[in-house]
Amino acid sequence: ALALGLALAEGSGVPSVELPDGVQMPMLAFGSWPGSLKGCTVADGVKQWLMLGGRHIDTANDYHTQPDVGAAIRKVGVPRSEIFLTTKIPGPIGKQAAMDMVLNVSLPSLGVDYLDLVLIHFPCIEDKLFPNKCGAEEHAQRVDTWGGLLELKKRGKIRAVGVSNFDADQLATLAAASGVTPAVNQVE
Length: 188
Fold this sequence. Notes:
By secondary structure, the protein is α/β, with parallel strands linked by helices.
């Protein structure tokens, strides 16, 4: 961690990848899942990450850390335009619920006007169904949830949309239904 911090502080930068629509995503992110942090709070970890020059922060509604992430961002004072924020909404919840979660929970909790990347966290509603038992039963709900994220992208509230932990068939289904392939499939 110290070597990374020194490299970032010295300006060597972090490689990025170009997502659709020209969105540049740093390849190294600070994950805000509280179970992965030892010896510091989420807010302290985010503050340290930003002060060392890190600019990509990954959070999720299920982590319950978005208010802490937002407070840390405000406290450090790095301009929003310099930070890449990724968040995840729960597995298929439907179009309206997805839109409501982003507009009424994620954005206000983080204290921002837009998100750089929003992912559908899991293809299944229940963890016990993941990964191989949720395909057909939740197909329509996955497509509907995806539609909600695409609508928010059209409105400028999300710059890029993706998924997490989806298999190839589930990715193909979303692309076929919408004409839009997920920009990212983050796999745990």
